Every structure is written in structure tokens, then in C-alpha cells.
Amino acid sequence: MPQFDPNPLVLEAQARVCTGPTQSRPLGVKTGDPQPQPVLEAILDTLQDAARHPVSDIQMGAFFAAMRLRRAYPTKTAWSAAEVQAFQRYRALLQTHLPPDVQYIFGFADHCPPESPEEQTVISALKTILCGGHLAYRHTRLMCEAILTDRVRGSLKGAALIGQRMNLESHDEVRGYLHAAFSPESIRTVKVDDLTHFGQPYNGSTRYFKPTLFVAALRAALGRPSVLHGVDAMPPKWGVTDEQILNALHARAKLSLSEAAERLENPEIGFAYISQREYAPKAYAARDLRTHIGKRPPWSATEKAQQLFTCPGNNHLVIGYYHSGYEIPLLKIARETGFTSAVAIKGEEGSSHFSLRLGKPTDKRRNAINFSQGFRADQTFARDIDPAAYGFHYAQNPRPKAVGAHVFAKLGLAALSGKRGHVYDRIVLNAALTDHLLGFNPDPRDAIQQAQSAIDTGRALKHLRAYLES
Fold first, then answer.
1. What is the average per-residue pLDDT within 387-393?
2. For residues 147 and 162, what is the distance between their CA atoms, to the nearest angstrom?
3. Are residues 19 and 143 in the same domain?
């Protein structure tokens, strides 16, 4: 992995071109746009050891894979006139100086000699990806497992991840990414009647209070064990995470799977947080790779559906998302896996957290924040959650005055101690309506009353303190 930060000029270009056929933004269309000529000059300076801020091999792989795929894109998202001119001007230099792996990625060469068996796996996958095609489940999983080793050049990793994202991953490819990080064979059984996994964005929150940890404590007080998982910090947002909040509360945030299972089975605790550093250290080690590819890799979506434990009774899944499309294969995987119920919520900042104000409802063109869809046994549902319908009346969705792990820890503790306000309401709304959608309580108003009672009687705080002291 690179030992330096990505080149900011090339990273800005990647943010524009490394996306799908309807969203890519060509370089150099307007005066204020990133221009392709300086991008290519930065790459050539790096290759000739003349760069002040070098472009990493991961960046080169991602950028040239994107440019190759965009040759077949619709006019609006394909190469601009400025891009055509810049590549014509520097074509001879690029052919001379680009290393063989990048020449292969861009299409200057038809073959890339592998330097390891893992590289051969990735190169084989790139033959399909760079033509805009899709891989079968097994091929995707093998490719992802190879990417998570240190035996594949960064350029090939960047090209494969960005290429699949730009091709809009198929159902089999989503499954491949999910199982490459943590295999289904590694799932552990815990002795509880019901178990719910919460999948939130690993890159955290930067605007709104993050209630997941406090929702888990509340649900534990209602006898509904929860699994949370994530990381300490993750690009591109580097936002506040559950792990940071746990650290601010002086709790152990680095539990083994066995230690987490003990807390789930302990009726006085009833929830557990697992760091990706523990359950998938190779995936966590790829954090620098995420920084350099410039866009969220497919793992950003699939890791939300990670199942770490199972129980003999009913298993439930809650997924947060922002970009529409990923929720469909993730819900399908949940059903195929055998979850009793699952819900995908377009929540705040890509989380499953309901906003305290609905805003503009869902229509044919867009899903609103708070749009929720999923299944309970054989029933399916899809609808907006309007907090006002359940007694939460806010003219605007409130934000905390400051954003930070210690701030969120203090606000969450105060709310579980009974302090009323928007943090208290956010915890109650998210616990109650999520449980209603999952099928724990057919009456959402009764679910709200149960959640409020669990806080007001001190039971939720008792479960949180038991976790912090364990």
C-alpha cells in the first residue's frame, strides 16, 4: 500500500470520472472543471520521478480503468473534447512510460504478465470487467479475496474495484464481495431467541447524532439482542463511528467474536459491537486502498449486510443506504440467507437512522429520506416513515450543536437517563419504528410507548452501563 496521501488533483478527477454510465462527469467541459491535461502531466511526472506529490499506482489503475470504460458510455458521460485532445497530445509519452500493468488496464496492451497466482486471478477478472461485463459469484469472490492480499499490484486492485462499481454490480457480484470479507462458514451461533444485525456506513456521521449504540441498549432492555459492527474511522468521510463513541465512553471496543457472543447471551447486557479489525482484519487493512481509489468501493455497501452471528430462533437485518439500487440485492441476499425479516432504510447520511422530519415524500423519481422497504416472513413492504404521524413534530430535522464522539456519548447518556429532547426522540423513534417494521410489534404506537418506558424506568441505561463495565 502507498505510504503517502493520494495526489489531490488526480483524486478530484477520479471523483468525477470513476462512476457509472449516467453519473460520470467528463473533465474539462467547463472552465472551472478539473482539466485533463494537468492530470496526465501529474501522472507522467510521477512515472519520470519528477512529481512533488506522486500519483499512486492505485490511483493510476482506477483512473485509467475509468477512462477505458467511458469510451463506451453515452455522449453525456463519455470522453469530452478536452479529454480526447489531452490523450492525443500525450499518447506517445503514455505508451512509453506507463508500466505494463497500467498499459493493460487502459488498453494499450492485450496482456499483463502476472507476478503471483493472486494477480492472475485479478487479471482474469479484469478481462471481463474492463469490457463492461459481469462476473459469476465464485469468480468475484476469488478476485476479492486476492485483492485483500499483499500479492496484487495496487493498479490492478484499483482498476478491478472501480471497474465493477462503474459496471453497477450484479447480484452475484454483491454476494461475492460480502462473502470475501467474512465467509458464511465463519458465522457463529449464539443462544438467544431473536437476533438483529444493524448495518451502518463504516465511514460514520458528520452531521447528525448517531443513535445506533443507544438504540441497541434500549432494545436489549426489551429483550431484543443486537449486533453492531464497524471500524474506528474510514474514508472518505472519516465521520463519527460507534467505535469512537464506545471509546469515548471508556468501553472495550475491540472484542473477539467469542467475547461478543458472551455479551449477546448475557441477559443483563444483550448487545455487542464487533470491529472489522477483529472479524475481517484483511478488509480493514484495505482502508488505504479505499483512500486512493477516490470513490466508495463495493464493500462500502456490502459490509452493511454482514452477518457475524446466527441464532436458532428468528434472525433480523437492518441496512442503511443512500444511493438507491444496492438495497435490492442486499435484501435479496437477506432472504436467501434465511433472515426472518429485513428492512433497508434510506436514512440520514446513508444510515438506517430515521430523520425526525420526513420532508418531501417518495415519488417515482426518488426515494425520500425515511423510505423503508423489506420483508417479514412472506410479506413485503415499502413506505415512508413520517415521524409526525407518531407524535414527533419537528419543523426541521435537528442537528447537534457540535459533532464528535465525546459529544455524542454525552448526549446519548443524557437521553438514556431520561432527558427529553431531539436526541431522546431520535433514539425512541429509531428503536420503535425499526422494531415495528421487523415485526416485533404490530402497533407502532405501542412500540413507541415500550421504548419510552424502557428509558424512563432506567432499564436501557442499566444495559448500557453493564456493557461499559463488562
1. 97
2. 13
3. yes
Domain shared by 159 and 238, yes or no: no
Mind giving me the DSSP string for 111-158?
Answer: ----SSHHHHHHHHHHHHHTTT----HHHHHHHHHHHTSSSS-HHHHH
Instruction: Work out the number of other CB atoms within 10 angstroms of the CB of residue 307.
Output: 22
Three-class secondary structure of residue 409 per DSSP = helix
Cell of 131: 469490457
Q: CATH code at 454?
A: 3.40.1030.10
Q: What are the distances in angstroms from CA 60 to CA 54, 92, 99, 215?
A: 11, 17, 10, 42
CA distances 387 to 50, 222, 257, 357, 426, Å, are 57, 22, 36, 6, 10
Dist. CA 436–CA 9, nearest whole Å: 47
110/90 Cα distance (integer angstroms): 20
In a domain, 366, yes or no: yes
- The pairing of beta strand 341-346 with beta strand 309-310: unpaired
Read off φ and ψ for residue 7, nearest 5 degrees: -65, 120
- What are the backbone dihedrals phi and psi of residue 341, each rounded to the nearest 5 degrees, phi first? -150, 155
Residue 1, pLDDT score: 61
- Residue 2 maps to a domain: no
Which pLDDT tens digit goes with each residue over 222-237? 999 999 999 999 988 8
415 is a domain residue = yes
Please give the Cα distance from 354 to 341 (Å, whole number): 18
DSSP string, 344-395: EEE-GGGSSPPPSS--SPP-SS-PPTTEEEEEETTEEEEEE--GGGGT---S
Domain span including residue 118: 8-168
Question: How much is the pLDDT for 50?
Answer: 83
What's the pTM value of the predicted model, to 2 decimals? 0.94
Residue pLDDT, tens place only, 116-163 = 999 999 999 999 999 999 999 999 999 999 999 999 999 999 999 999
Contact at 8 Å (CB) between 271 and 463? Answer: yes
Longest dimension (CA), the chain: 74
Distance between CA atoms of 453 and 434, rounded to whole angstroms? 17
